[in-house]
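> run fold Amidohydrolase-related domain-containing protein
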Amino acid sequence: MDATRPQKLDLLVRGGTVLTAAPNRPVIEDAVIGVRDGRLAVLAPAGEVGALEATRVVEASGFVITPGFVNVHTHANLCMVRGVAEDMGFAPAYTPGVPHGHDVTPDEARALARLGALEAMLFGSTLINDSYVHADVALPAMEELGMRVYACGRIHDVDFSSVHRQVWEHRREIGERTLRDAAELASRWHGAMNGRIGVQLAAHAPDTCSRELLADVYDARRELGLRVNIHLAQSRIEVERVRERDGLTPAELLESVGLLDDRLLGTHCLYLTESDIARVGRARMTVCHIPKGNATGGTAAPTSRLRRAGAALALGTDNMHADMIEVLRWALAVGRLQEGGVTDFWQPHHVFDMATMEGARAMGLDEDLGSLVLGKKADFVGFDFRRAHLTPNVNPLGNLVHVAHGRDVGFVAVDGRLVVEDGRPTLVDEEEIRREGAQAARQLWARAQG
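> ok
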C-alpha cells in the first residue's frame, strides 16, 4: 500500500452549506464533510480539499447542514396525550382524565418510546434526554433507531396514582425502588453502544421527591458520577407544596441538599423568585428551556433574567411534539417578548447555540458533540433548503430559525452513519412503529376513560 495515499473515508458529504456552531468558523459554503471511524476527518470548503475517496458519497447541494440537535428534556412516551393534554392545563402526571405513567405497561412503553424517539430523530435531534416509566425497556428500544439516547425512569417517592387528585403521599419504599432502578439502569447501559447510550438520574420534581430522597439522589450522583435532571419550579402547585412541606422554595430545597450546581439540569423554571434566579445563576445550573410547551400553557420562563444571572440555557421539547426547530423559534420569540423588542441580546445564533453546544455542555458531552469541528463525532443533520419557504437563502441561520421546520430534514447522521435518508429512517420500519405506537395509545386511552 502507498503510505502517502490518503486513507479512504467512510462517508463523504459535499456541496452543502454548513452551520458549524463553532465561533472561529461559523459558516462553510460549498462544504466537504468527510467521516472516518465515526468522527469528522475532513471539514472545509471544496476549494481547499483535493481528491477524496469514500465508501459512500452524498450530494448535498441545496442543503444546510447543522450539528445534530441535543434535546435535553423530553418524555417520548407522552406522545400518547398529544393534541389533548395541551388544552387541559398542567402536566399530564397532574392532570385528571388522561393516561398516567402508572397505567403504562412495559410493552406499551416500548411502543410509545420508539414512536416519540422516531419523531425526534426525523426532526433532527441526534440526542434525546428522556425520562418516564419502564426505562429498562424503553432505552434499548429507542437505541435501535441509531440515535443517541440518555434515559432514566422517573425517581420519586410520592405515590403517583394519587397526584392527579392533588394528594401527595411520600413512601420511602417507592423512593428506594426508583433510585435503585436508576442505578441498575446506569450499571447496565451508561456508556454502551460506543457511548451512544447513557443515563442521568431523573429526579421527578421537588414536590414529588421528599427532602430525604433528594439527599439520597445527591449521594447517588457522587457515587455513580452521573448528572441529575429535575422539573424545577414548573407549577404554582409545586412551589406551594414545597413551601408547606419544607419551608423553602424549590430552588432553596435543592441548594440545601447540595444538588444546585453546574451538574444539575432544571427544567421549566417558571416560578422562581428573584433570589431564586440569582441562586440558580450563581450555581451555573443549566435551565432546560421548554418555550413552546410553556407558552402553550400560558407561561414563560424568565430566560433573559436567568441568562444575565449566569445560568446556562439549553433547549428541550418536553411533551407531545419533538420539533426542535419550532423550539428554536419560540425561544427567540419568548426572549424578545421579555426584552420588549429586537436587540442584540436575543438573536438566532443564541438559540442555535442553546440547541447545539449548550445542550452538549449540559450533558457533559461538549468535547465530542455540539459543533462540527475536526475530530468530533460525526453527528449532523441536513435540511433541504430547495423549498419555496426557504427561498431565497440570503441568511441560512436566519432561515433555519425563522421559517424552517423539522419536516425539512432530509438526512441525519449519528457517528457518521446515516440513520435518516430522504426523510425516512434507515434502520427501522417507520410504519410498524407508527402502528404499534397508535395501538398502545388507543389501549391506554380506553383504560383511562373506562
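The chain has two domains: 9-67+371-425, 69-362.
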